[in-house]
Specification:
It is a single chain. By secondary structure, the protein is an all-alpha fold. The chain is built from twelve helices and no strands. The longest helix has 24 residues. The chain is globular and about 50 Å long.
């Protein structure tokens, strides 16, 4: 039980800016804690989505500005962690086109022009898409998207090989039981949220996660945490578009 509790706290500490405290004797490197951390990764999406929707309810009298503000806050709540990955991956892809080592580029602390341009485009698409969903009160599908995008990352952790020490450690910690538990638990939550339409979002999300991650890997030659983050951002953009088209 302690490992589950520590994993829950670690998930919110690592994948969000929600303040979480640990004791100095807490061992966050154990396999059970890291496995639990990944188990609760979709819960992070659920909570951040719920907070975003709750904020919009408070700001709804401001109309589109309240929706826009809430959409930006959602990205702030995960500390732009995945957005930063878009910069690194875009730079690495363009560097590989010119024969440079994509891994060296992706690890550089600086960012190039293409990374900035692709990130600005992604942010605009994501914020405008979430604003659109909030304005049309598509709250349940929005939260479902945030759950599914993170479930997709669990599939990647389980199936892919990583050029990253921490990602490899997480992969080793994600047992079949943790993966199946996450899929079952959050599919039930998604079913209550969006009804049977959740499975449409789930299938589209898992398929797009695999295709996007595979495409990026084919361009730069490896999979790491930045690839996962960039994949999540793109999957959420695509799923928001899909929901906007199908639900309205």
């Amino acid at each position: 039980m302690k490992s589950l509790y520590l994993g829950l706290k670690f998930a919110f500490s690592y994948f969000s800016i929600i303040p979480v405290k640990f004791n100095e004797h807490d061992d966050l490197s154990s396999k059970d804690v890291l496995g639990s951390m990944l188990l609760f990764l979709p819960l992070v999406g659920f909570v951040l989505g719920t907070l975003t929707v709750g904020l919009f309810h408070l700001l709804e009298p401001l109309s589109w500005y309240g929706a826009l503000f809430s959409a930006v806050v959602y990205m702030m709540l995960y500390g732009f962690l995945h957005t930063e990955a878009v910069m690194d991956v875009a730079d690495a892809i363009y560097a590989s086109h010119s024969g440079k080592d994509a891994y060296d580029i992706i690890k550089e602390p600086t960012v190039g022009a293409m990374g900035i341009l692709w990130t600005v485009g992604s942010v605009l698409l994501k914020i405008s898409g979430i604003t659109f969903l909030l304005m049309h009160h598509l709250f349940a599908p929005f939260i479902a998207i945030l759950i599914v995008s993170r479930l997709g990352l669990l599939i990647l952790f389980y199936t892919q090989t990583f050029r990253s020490t921490f990602a490899t450690q997480l992969k080793a910690s994600l047992t079949r039981n943790y993966l199946l538990s996450a899929l079952i638990l959050f599919s039930i939550i998604g079913l209550f949220l969006a009804g049977v339409y959740f499975f449409t979002i789930l299938l589209a999300g898992l398929l797009s996660t695999y295709l996007i991650a595979t495409f990026i890997k084919s361009k730069i030659g490896f999979m790491n945490g930045d690839v996962l983050g960039a994949t999540l951002e793109n999957v959420e953009i695509l799923l928001v578009m899909m929901v906007a088209l199908l639900w309205l």
